[in-house]
Amino acid sequence: MKKKRSNTVRIALIQMRAGARPSDNLKKALAKIREAARKGAKIICLQELFSSPYFPQIEDAKNFTLAEPVPGPSLQALSEAARSLKVVIIASLFEKRTDGIYHNTAAVLDADGSFLGKYRKMHIPDDPGYYEKFYFTPGDLGFQSFSTRYAKVGVLVCWDQWFPEAARITVLSGAQILFYPTAIGWLDREPPKARKAQQAAWEIIQRSHAVANGVFVASVNRVGKEKKIKFWGSSFISDPFGQILAKAAAEKEKVLIADCRLDQIRETREGWPFLRDRRIDAYGALNSRLIDQTQPAPLAESLRD
Q: Please, which residues bridge with residue 152 across strands?
């Protein structure tokens, strides 16, 4: 008889500094995964592009040598850890699909070490210090969820976290927990007031995804100074009503742990039925880049009728 899935799942976020050598970063990540497993974590998520420094600060073709197939060598090592520890692992990697086509990809491994699939980052930024369009082709796998041994998870990557459409579609596919592997920080020239506002906005937008969709949200960032960016850490886990269950410090490495009671999703949605009250018949304008105010909005006539 199939074993009933537990209502509560303990998750972990691995917030760490990245060194210059990918092999050392992988070794450190594996050690912290083992630490998380010792603490009872069943689903463990690594930060964005965990195996290297955040290389998109500059445009340099030499950095393409950091890419690997997915599945590939790093995922094989992580798969062995997932199988031996009986944990789910979410790993953000620089994927080489073929010469000239690379992706910012998150892979999901189940607790038996099997490869469940991958998500390719859909929204690609191009800002000072974040020149990702030079490296990454926009994702082509869509927004999706993965059924793991312990919960159904959705994965979105960094810049994706600012887009409510991405969170909503992922949740509609069944995700109970949204994971956001991240690499975000401050540039040297930014004043303290701007830094505080940016970090607050980053947390607020992700907690709002938890509230709007009635799911758990787990965002894991890196720490440390790399070239001109100081990564602000502050990884956190939010419940379906946007309350912080656990939060890491801004500058220290941390294996962040929290228990997610999955029944809380149902309880929250019953009290605040945002999904029930969506007007999907009136949202056609979301398919437009901008609404021309001189023309009727899509569906305007039918809604008046």
A: 147
Query: Which helix (H) or strand (E) covers residue 210, if one does?
Result: helix 192-213
> Domain with 269 in it: what CATH number?
3.60.110.10
Is residue 250, in this structure, part of any structural domain at all?
A: yes
Pull the structure tokens for residue 130: 């974040």
Neighbours of 247 (CB within 10 A): 18
| Residue 140 pLDDT greater than 50, yes or no | yes
Bond prior to 191 in cis (omega within 30° of 0): no
Helix, strand or coil for residue 161?
A: helix
Q: Which helix (H) or strand (E) holds 181?
A: strand 177-181
Confidence category of residue 15, pLDDT binned at 50, 70, 90:
very high
Residue-wise pLDDT for 193-210, tens only, equals: 999 999 999 999 999 999
Q: Which of 121, 230, 247, 254 is flagged as catalytic?
A: 121
Does 105 have pLDDT greater than 80?
yes
Determine which one of 32, 42, 96, 158 is catalytic: 158
- For residue 294, what pLDDT is reported? 72
Return the pLDDT at 292: 81
Q: How far, in Å, are 24, 163, 218, 278, 295 from residue 287 at the CA level? A: 44, 14, 28, 16, 15
Q: Which domain holds residue 171?
A: 8-280
Q: Is 295:49 a contact under the CB 8 Å cutoff?
A: no
Q: Is 35 labeled as catalytic in the residue annotation?
A: no
Number of domains in the chain: 1
* 268 part of a folded domain: yes
The answer to the question of residue 274 being in a domain is yes
Give CA–CA dist 230/287, Å, rounded: 36
Query: Is 121 among the catalytic positions?
Result: yes
pTM more than 0.85:
yes
Please report whether residue 292 resides in a domain.
no
